[in-house]
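Appendix B. Chain record.
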Amino acid sequence: MGFPSQTVVSVCLPTYNNASYIKEAIQSAINQNINAMEIIVSDNASTDNTKEIVTNISSPLIRYNRNNENIGMCANFRKALSLAKGRYVLFLSGDDMISDNRLCVLINALESQNNAVFAFGNTEYIGGRLGRSNYKLDRCSEGRVLTVKSLRDVKNYVFLVSALFKREAASEVMIEDMVFFDWLFWLRLAMKGNVVFCDDVVGLHRYHDRNETKLSAGGIKKECAELMRVPDRFIKNIEQNDAVLIRAAKNCRNGLFMKYLCLAAEQKKEKKKNISDMLSIDIDKFLWLQGLLKLPYYYIKPYLASLKGYLE
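Structure tokens predicted for this chain:
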């Protein structure tokens, strides 16, 4: 694909101990056949043979950086982004892959809208989970619309491997130190302009036991608490008179809590009907919920009232 001589696309590949998959990840980027591209590998002090594998790949597109020590997942994403020189950036985890000839699809989509800050598409699942996302979204929309929809639906529609964003627009959006930083990143970036959706599979996301996000999230109680941080952090950075966004963020928190309560109840072999019956007796007696999820009571109390209606 022909582009000017300057770097147009930076594929940022933060990695830690992905020796089993990183060659495939890098090769998927090389196979895009875009000359005006750089592949930035930020190795977070891997203890396997990641360095050997990367440095043995013969390609002028690769820029390899190795941290002296493990600086954490989110800091490594920030490090990779700080090294980028391209107009556009795609985050490619060391165990994911870009679909064949799909990077150009994202580039064309992004360039088709002057005010667009990122373009994204659907994702195929590989490894321990098979299938694909099958989102049906508007081709181009105001980013705020996607943000509200994402919060209301309690769903992150954007996989890192399936999204290309403008580096300049992202310069004002912080990658925070939290497990699900990517959801918060897209929510905030979408508020900067329009977004473009490509109804095509553009990335492959691998599910396996060593996923860095999965390892960071831990069990169900920690995953619930970490996900609830996303709307909590988002709401702190929006105008307090923006009732629509505030309501959407609060609904997202409620939805996340109820979702994980039901998952925990299933694990405990409790039935929704039994929970609903118990809630109808006396709401102050439900400190058992704290034991169920092992969450601080202040996480639970605001959602008990709405939980009754959800479970009935």
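Further analysis of this model is presented in Appendix C.
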